Amino acid sequence: MDNDLLTQKPKTTSQEMKKLTYFQALAKSWKAGFQTVDFSVKIILTLGILIIGATQFPSYLNHIQKRPGVALEDLVLNALPSMDVSVPIFTVLYSILIFSLIQSLKKAEVFLLYAITYVCVTIFRMVTITLVPLDAPAGLINLADPFAEAAVYGTASPVTKDLFFSGHTATMVLIWIIIEGRIAKILAGITCILIAFFLLLQHVHYTADVIAAFAFTVASYELAKVIKKWHWIPFSAVMLTLFALLLTVFRHAAVMYP
Fold first, then answer.
1. Three-state SS across 109-139?
2. Tell me, what's the pLDDT at 173?
3. Which residue of 55, 109, 111, 154 could cross-link 104, Cys pair, CB 3.0 to 4.6 Å?
4. What is the domain partition of the chain in residue ranges?
5. What pTM was computed for the model?
6. What confidence tier does 150 reach under pLDDT thresholds 50, 70, 90?
């Protein structure tokens, strides 16, 4: 027993963790995660759903763009002039998004929660877009977002009917929730409100789209926290059910608006 105690590696304390470089902490966290079946299944399944879902977004949005919708009377938009603020939106959003991803990658469990929440947000959003057909707001100025055009829309042609609820606002709310550090949290909160205002200023979304994004993202985060705690078997069952729902939504759009 004495020999065993002498040869045991001491546990890493919080102070020692602070001394690790970013990449050392990242490697340690992910190595520990992949040593368990639970984490391995959850992260692989979650990222798999995100990747497969992303390949279907361009086709889905193309179908949605063909359908008729309802134009809402929006008092807030009526009071705001139309201005092109694409550059500030793109610059601010993706700068803080990259920072939050780099920060969350350092802690595998935090990144997993980030990814699960994003899956939930995406499914909520695809369902609500399908159920709430809207036409673009009056005075809309197309949002220039090279990343979204390449990774989500799959085309440089404007997509204007993916409205309820706002994906850009939802992304910012998720960043604000996940990001760590008092100053970073405050900056993310300010940026979140700023992006929401910019989207309205450019008349890219209705006010309801932006407000709903806050509610649906918080709900997605709370749902993700619950699901993440489950054993990997019920977790997988729920995630695959949600994925089946997402594929059903994609299929519905393809059939209804070919």
1. HHHHHHHHHHHHHHHHHHHHHHHCCECCCCC
2. 98
3. 111
4. 31-256
5. 0.89
6. confident
